[in-house]
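Changelog excerpt

This revision adds worked examples to the README so contributors can see how folded entries look when concatenated. The first example is reproduced verbatim below.
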Amino acid sequence: MLDRCLFQRTRAAARAVTRFYDDQLRPTGLRATQANVLATVAAKGELSISALSDELGMDRTTLTRNLRPLEQRGLLVVSPEGPHRIRLVRLTSLGVTALGAAAVLWEEAQAALEEHLGEDGVASVRRATAAITSSASRASH
């Protein structure tokens, strides 16, 4: 069962990649998931927690757990609840600076993995992850 289990294999691969990026980003004090949150907010601008969770493909509980330390460090601001219980997330200037430092290390990590995998390996990973995401989404509905 374990040899064939796509859940086990994709989770193990995801954990290995997460550890690699976490190690590379350690000097910034950010985890890879936190840097991804900052990068998404920077790219999309101020957005609601719901919209951010959709962008990241992350459930709201996990996202909230990731937002707390970023807010405590002053890297982003989560607004008080507004109309329709909406809370907005935006980067602070400190968050922009932290993201800039993380981006440099992320680029180095990305280049190292791309070099190790080679062009064909990178293309294969992209195709496989897109297919898995799409298939799992369709199968669950």
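The second example, added in the same revision:
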Amino acid sequence: MPAAADNPRNLLTSLILVFPLFLIYQVGILFTLPVLNGVDFVTTLLFRTFGLTLTGYLGFLGGVLVLFLVTVMALGRRQRFNGAVVIPVILESVVWALTMGSLIVFVMTRMLGISPRLAGGIEGQGLLTRFVMSLGAGVYEESVFRLGLLSGLALVLEKVVRVARWAALLGALVLSSALFSAMHHLPPYGDPLAISPFVFRVLAGIFFGLLFWRRGFAVAVYTHAFYDIFVLVIK
């Protein structure tokens, strides 16, 4: 079986590589509440709607672990985990994370004539909170907008609407990226709507989407997480 870095359809390898980030995020939010990732609907529902206790939350994590093991076992019937790609995936993701910002700035300034400026809103958060937020963005936003929305829209456009495969992929890429950007402007915690941060995040969504489609889910997740760590924690 080809490695995850060479075969983006090897979901088994990608899920195993991403699961540690998910666990670190889920444990980390215990120390950073009430801050949660904007698309972490499950944890938000558990804490803010149901007032989940620590014991109940640990039980929830145990259930997630069981579900993960069942999924891995099911995928293991058709795919094989390739542990040799762990370091290559991480190194590749670091390179993409360091490259993405400069590429987007180039497109915005030289091709679109838009000043690249992201909105604020994190100045009052500590380093731990920013780190946990970065991991949550990598895991949850890539799961929702790339693994779920991009893949789902491409499938619907190709199989139901009956458009050409390339057109389905392009349409799904643009639409999922626009929704990804719009999510960051939703009240009450979203940034004020402005053209520069909106376009920047649309282009970032396209970048992550291309990585997901060509390099796999794990590379997209780690690139997203590393980029946010570089911007929110280290820079």
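Reviewer comment on example two: The two ends are 39 Å apart (CA to CA). Confidence is low (pLDDT under 50) at residues 1-5.
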